[in-house]
Amino acid sequence: MAGTGGCRCGAVRFRYQGQPVATRLCWCRDCQYWASGNATMNIIVPQAGLAIEGAPAHYDSSADSGHHMRRSFCAACGTQLLSQSLENTEFIVVRVGALDHAEGIRPEAVIWTSSAPEWALFDPALPRFPKGAT
User: Fold this and answer.
1) Domains along the sequence of the chain with CATH
2) Which site in 9, 35, 36, 91 is 20 to 30 Å from 26, CA atoms measured?
3) What is the sign of the dihedral through the CA atoms of 91, 25, 76 and 12?
4) Does position 93 have pLDDT exceeding 70, yes or no?
């Protein structure tokens, strides 16, 4: 599988190759910030298959999981693009909202439900995890 994406203004573009190893909705508190109070929708793909054109900005922080995360976004328009655990450089998280074509991508699980607001709705058909998936 291959895909392309980028930011709203076009300053940063990316392409990936490789089958996603996971497709998740994430309700961690950090993702709620990036998604304006909602969950983020993400695919996790092999880092080796990712190519980036342009210069995304980065924000590094410690996640509730204990991992050190690097989140990449467009410095010009603010579009969230990627996220990566600095402890796991084999895979990278791609924000589905930044993909050019997201047809056929469906969440397989919902993670960090313990951080979701009380009004959050969960698809009863999807596995849910109070923290990250195991």
Assistant:
1) 2-115 (2.170.150.70)
2) 9
3) positive
4) yes
